[in-house]
Records
---
Amino acid sequence: MRVVVIGSGIVGASAAYYLSGRGAAVTVVDGGYHGEATQAGAGIVCPWVDHPEDDAWYRLTREGARHYPELVEELGEDIGYAKVGALLVAEDPADLEPVRALLRRRYPGAPEMGDVTDVAAPAELFPPLSDTLSALLVPGAARVDGCSVRDALLRAAVARGAEVRTGAATLTADGQVYVYALADPPRSQNAPAETPPQADAGTSPAQAGSGTSPAQAAEGERSRPAAPSQGERGVSGATTSWRQATPLPPTSPPPPTGTTPPTAGAPREGAPPLPTSPTPLPQGATASPQGPTPPADVTSSNATTPPPAIAPPPATGAARRFDREGVRIDADMVIVAAGAWTGEVCRPLGVELPVFPRRGQIVHATLEGVDTAWWPIVLPSAGPYLLGFPDSRVVIGATVEDVGFAPRVTMGGLAEVIEAGLRIAPGLFGATVTEARVGLRPVYAPGHALIGPVTDRVVVATGLSAYGLTAGPFTGEIAAALALGEEPPLDITPYAPPTGA
Ligand SMILES: Cc1cc2nc3c(=O)[nH]c(=O)nc-3n(C[C@H](O)[C@H](O)[C@H](O)COP(=O)(O)OP(=O)(O)OC[C@H]3O[C@@H](n4cnc5c(N)ncnc54)[C@H](O)[C@@H]3O)c2cc1C
């Protein structure tokens, strides 16, 4: 079976990995859109403290976390995965009681979280922390490097015969895939052996990407109150969610762009509004970065019908230029794992999937000469999370902003993260800021993940929001099974796309 996977973030890379492992002929296409969530993701894998009243979310993230040790072994390379434990910290010890009760309730179904214990002096485990904090330690929590996972999955998929192409993919109404070459380079050359869309089937790649991505780490996640539809609650109350409960204390005025309604057609900063449906063109219309283009059916040797007129992929979030005409890639099935862009990719199918981007800005800092590799994750009841990584690195994150497709690092965002980070960990005052990253979490407006078929040949897998590094590899496995017509490893009913979307 031939399967095209659109998007090579952690979900698409995983789908390619599992598909190729089951004998499918896989082509992965990624446009390298700025704002890919996976490269910015913090890397916290600690599902037991969240979604207290949402069993469907919890099951997906719990199974995602459970999936990791096996995956690490299978991949056989360092993906930055380490069970470093998580410190749940609070100024007032009473604030730890709800999460203690939640963990107690969940322990029988998830003993892998380990025995939760009180920690009298959390700064002994994470030295920069304020010494006024109380804490619980969840020893089973892990951190992972999202970029390393994605790259390792892609490498393994390629080793099994998958092809990786650089380009922007678009769908026709009947689910055919066309790929457009990009005039500007992708975000990173993360795939081992990328192949750009070719003007002629069988010609050698003219602009093959090469090499692997720079070692880009990914870490942690903290959210402002989610969209109401996500059902997150505040910290008070016995079943409250720990991590999602509270926003970072505001240190700056809200972004001028305001709050984006959680819809696929949400206004975006710095980009023109997207068409709500592809613009049909007469045959023979010319290609243009600004306008729709009918693709030349140049790759397919078995295409017998004239190609439908379709629009090039929308220039979402960043102006993109398309050098050439679209190239069709034959496929029996398509998996759309295009993160925050999934709604737009699927629009030509005649489905409206309200997937929207939720921006996260995150700071990486270095404490020269300090071994931070085994520091636990720090998850406060309020304020930012912190993680230690090898190379004396500490990650502090993250903002949660509904500002549309605007993957920019802002002064306000950095100030918010750094100021709040220093409040909880004043020992970071002298740390060197080495990097700021930004990513667009893919959020499905109804409030849960979105996994399942949207047509008889297109499966979507997205909406993992702040939990994509936790549940992404497992979600890719689910999507692969669905594309192959197999029983998925989890009941997908709660995540299935609405019928008649
Ligand atoms: C700051 C931050 C911190 C986070 N921390 C955590 C954490 O600690 N733990 C956790 O579990 N999760 C975390 N997350 C969430 C997690 O990173 C995301 O849920 C996850 O990475 C989403 O992966 P994805 O593959 O669905 O999407 P993405 O990683 O966004 O990948 C989508 C890909 O699709 C490509 N694409 C889109 N449209 C097209 C097209 N038309 N043609 C070709 N390619 C296309 C894009 O280029 C992109 O590479 C965090 C996220 C952020 C932003």
Note: Helices lie at 10-21, 37-40, 55-75, 97-106, 146-159, 342-346, 411-424, 468-483.
---
Amino acid sequence: MSRIKDLIGRGDLERVFVPLLPLFPQAFTYIKGELLERVWPAVKAILEENGIDTNGDRDALIRDLMKEDPVELASEIDSDPFKTLIRTILSARSKDEQTIKVSSALFKHYDTAEKLAAAPPEKVEEIIKPIGFYRAKTRSVQGAARMLMDTFGGEVPGKYRNLLELPGVGPKVANCVLVYAFGIPAIPVDTHVHRIVNRWGLVETTDPEKTCDQLMEILPREWWLVINDLLIRFGKEICKPITPLCGDKCPLDEICPKVIVKNKPRGKTKVAKKGKESK
Ligand code: SF4
């Protein structure tokens, strides 16, 4: 049985990613054109195995499936570049549910760079206080808003190097903005993506930035837009940080080497012993 790294190495990405799509259908948002045509027969087969009628209109079926997605992500709320930028800065070390709540409250008062730049810092702090690190995050979001006004004409730039100039923006935030606000292929690597691709043995890295660099070399560009969204969902529900649901609950169980999985999973799986988990 080929493992994930071998499959991806020989270009058979469908074997790895397609089994996840019916479980986390919101990721279809980023699968279009030729890629959709290519993956659809295999997705259809999985849906039919699970008793879902696939004979009707494909787009309508995908839309219906998307409504059933078990995970709500901050990134999917809207694609306004300003809101995506601010929400992603706020999301550091915070749960998506909390980020969505707090950022929505913030945007009720300050929904443009101009308004946020001019807001009293104590008012911003008061609104975002529930997510923690609120003083530092206030400095970051207001600093970013001011730089957008002073340097970028009030607009969020669509270039990676310009995004990195903004306070509070590192590679992950910059890549998130490219993907979720502009639809520009990039691979934002957060803790879920980093953990999962290391468990798969696809990379062997100790920090998300190196993971990002290696993934961009390994994965074909047509999959870049999908990776972050799909793997965050998968990481929240199945390949969880502390106790991954290896075994029957994971569709990749047979092809996953489970590198650095410390907690012995329930069920039939074998656990590889290789080093220690870094995150
Ligand atoms: S088998 Fe376990 S470690 Fe591998 S992807 Fe599934 S849940 Fe994650």
Note: The longest helix spans residues 134-151.
---
Amino acid sequence: MSLRKFITNKTTAALAVLLTVFANTSAFAQEAAAGAAAAPKVDMGEVYKSVIFYTLIFLAVCVFIAIIGKAIKVYELSREAQGKPIGINWNGVHASLFALFLVLGLYGVYWEYTVHGSMLLPDAASEHGKKIDEMFNLTLIITTIVFIATHILLFGFAYIYKYSAKRKAYYYPHNNTIEKIWTIVPALVLTVLVLMGFLTWRSIFFKVEDPNNKPLQIEVTSEQFKWSIRYPGADGIVGKKNYKLTTASNTLGIDFKDLNSRDDEMADEMVIPVGKPVKLILNSKDVIHSFYMPHFRVQLNTVPGMQTIFEFTPTKTTRQMQEETNDPNFKFLFYCAKICGSGHYNMQKDVRVVSEAEYKTWIAEQKTYLNDDLRKQFNLPVAPAPAKPAAEGDSSATDSAAVKGNQMALNK
Ligand SMILES: [Cu+2]
């Protein structure tokens, strides 16, 4: 066989496709195996068995179709040899397949919308989330109408105007009116959608702060592969950080020289009061992660070396959501939505939305992060100064701490 024949040969082509598919899957498998090397061994036997099973089924179907095709070819050739007209009306077959594809496809769309549609997230649990849902729904309605209309036209025309010996194609090269309609209508629709998106974005990211309803600051730091949550303490301000101060006991590199840091608290879960604005201060210690709170329609990258900020107001408590979804185990969560490494799947934490009173009780129980070890590191007095009048203080540092302690006492 000459090289040219070898390259154009169908069997060679089929083998090449199979080889490429196999090479790709095994490359992915190797990568996954490398990533999972540290993780406990997972028995992949069943998975490989099922891959081989479906490959065999696929090959069997291909062989079956090829046999049918060859049989039809033989039938047609024998009719041709006998001088009879071709037995199968291929134009009719193809047109009917188009019509069938349209019907099955539309049923598939209906199935997707009802079966998978009911698995979508529940209604947004935040103020801005409602606007995002409205935009999502409007976009979905418009694109669905266009999708169904264009597909009925596409496959319907292929069926209705299939080849017929009795009919001659009508030459129709251009129509300005149609051109205008299908340019202006999509332009208008897209303008409305883009403007809505722009205004919604602005309303979410450019908020005017209400001095009577200041947002609760919470700092969230991502790293491979966990989240750290820092609350601001009584002063309501999350203190400064500096990566150069990172040590085994001060893993976030909190700068305790900054007075705002001294009363900061670390939490294992995010607890937020319902109806109050929350200002998330996001950053990362290593790679880019993505802070994702699907029920609140919040998602923003956490980037090493910079802060990103997202402000939102939760509108439903966890308990309310448990009632609404009829699931007593329902939990709000936040995740990492950026594939950041082998432990990415495990990056999630609970979010509990509670009443204002429950929040106050919870926050009062949280301990400050600054402990004796850290005090030594930062040359701060080890025994915390008890709340006493500022006049009796000795050094400036303890002075401010005492003032702060008094403020805390007053706040309570
Ligand atoms: Cu991540």
Note: The radius of gyration is 33 Å.
---
Amino acid sequence: MATSGTQLDPRFQECRERCTFAFATATIFQKRARRYSKYLRRLTFLGLALPLAIGGVVGADLLKKKDVLAAFIWIAGIVGVVQLVVSLWSVVARWPENLESSLAASSENSRLTEEFDALAKQVINPPLQFGNDYSKLITQDNTQRLADEKQLISDRERMYGHRAALRQFSVKCSECNAVPNSREIPRFVTTRCGTCGGKK
Ligand SMILES: [Zn+2]
């Protein structure tokens, strides 16, 4: 906890706010990275499932019966088309590139979270190089924010990140005055808080 003296130091407040913001952004990109990783695992599975299934069926010599052969060709055709469409989708939607950039943004924002947290703790009794470290970190954070904005964060993702940060730091939402009890935005609520996405 900061003393009343340190709360007056604007650098303390700035460090805390940037720490929270970087944490929120890191959780947004972690969620994205998990999603793209899942998509790519499914794509790899699809790519392996068809040839393995063909190899298994041919190996077991099951294609002598006409009805089995017809059913197999039909199923293999469907799976093949699905695989092609999903592969095309992955290229157009740039899943591998998005996974890589999400991991990089998540990692960098996690680092900024830790460093702003460490700096905020030093404001009480700042070391000699505090001013330099503070300016350097603010510059790095501004650069990272600009890079993150180019990755087009949606309103729902911002809400998710904000909610995760409120929960992490046990801070009440400024709109509904509640501390979220989970990161996930509740699916069913009659009236939703426009800031944290929780029940209002
Ligand atoms: Zn709220």
Note: The chain has six helices and no strands.
